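Researcher: I'm preparing a figure for a lab meeting and need a structural model of a single chain. I don't have an experimental structure, so a prediction will have to do for now. The sequence is pasted below. Please return the structure as tokens so I can convert it later.
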Amino acid sequence: MQRTNGSEDDRYTRGLARFISQLKFDDIPHDVVHRAKLLILDAIGCGLYAAQKPWGAILSDTFLSLDSTRDCAVWGTDKRLSAPHAAFVNGAMIQGFEIDDIHRQGMVHVGCVTVPVVLALAEARGPMSGRDFLTAVIAGYETTPRVGQCVGQEHLGKGWHPTGTVGTFGAAAAGSAALRLSEEQTVHALGLAGSQAAGIMAVQFGSMMKRGHAGRACQSGIYAATLAQNGFTGITNVFESRFGGFCTAFSQTEDRFDLTELTAGLGTSFETMRYGLKFYSSAASTQTALDAIRNIKARRDFKPDELDRIVVHGGQVMMEHTFWKYEPSGITNAQFNMPFTIATLLLEGDVFIDEFTEESIRDPRRIALSEKVEFVHEPSITAMGPKHRYIAEVEVYLKDGTTLLDRVEAQRGSEQCFASDAQVFEKFEKLARRVLPTAQVSRVRDLVMSAESIGDVTELVKEFQPRG
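Model: Understood. Here is the structure written out token by token.
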């Protein structure tokens, strides 16, 4: 097949850029706007909570030593940084405790690579109305999973971290929309984003950089959009190029990506409606198995000492993403390890923010119980593709010979059974109240849910920094 290195074939890159540059608030259906508000609120809650974690302090203090600009808030603190650095810290913090959103088929977390970008640009380049804020975030929400669906589940299976790689395009899209770039400028912003895309999944085994990938995507998105605004050029066929394009470089083989996914349904079928929320503070691929065990315990409340073994049946990505012999090496490792999260649920009754501490991840009881969890790869589930990659079939074998079974295809809060407004508010308040006074928590919630009426969205950001 003949290679094309110029712009001979750029129809998908340009089609995506056209959508991003032409998207208007009045073109977005009401239900999509409402869902976006809930997703934004969830992302903000996740970011505020994680701001108190050690990795947040390391990031913000490091950047403070490198950065004399104080335009933008570091959420949940009194610190301020330049737009790229503030977006880095805030994006990393949304990803900071494994409890932020997930797009199942796109395999990405998206609030962490979009919301911080738009709010940082609002502070640094504003004013920006609430309507423009929502429009820019939704441009990122629509772009990111389409790129993920284009490269397919093998992208994650190969060891790339989609939030870092794919997420860079979402950050650039959100930034381009926030700056109101033209179609041509947005083409270049996407091309610049592709050259900065990075992130490898070995970080899940015990590295703070798992959180940093989202932050780096935010920073790269701001660079891409602002450089393109000023005339710096990028790859104009970043997705289509057959040598060194994003899809050919980041996919296993040339026949394993689908460029049509980039523009399919743009403006008519909104991916924003296909995000799910997490109610466990653990990897997305663990959530269905945890739900299955909750369902089983609701029918037969067995005790840990009654357990002989647990067998989880699932697809290849679930196996590679979450299953290995657990050894303590950091909170991230514990949150990604399915045997350990299952042991946590059985012993603690939940898998939320208080269940993961530097002490608890070394709990001998949890480690011993995790060794009773096995995984069986089911090729039939793998063959169903990324839309079904979270399916988990769980068998619980008790010492008295009883076998208990459950199958979960979509976790609590997923797009198939999305959370109610009240459930989203409750989760947000649980997280945000660890950092902000109650009055500010309520104020943030109310501002987000009425964002289209805000004249300048920095009014919202001011509430992210604690006041007395």
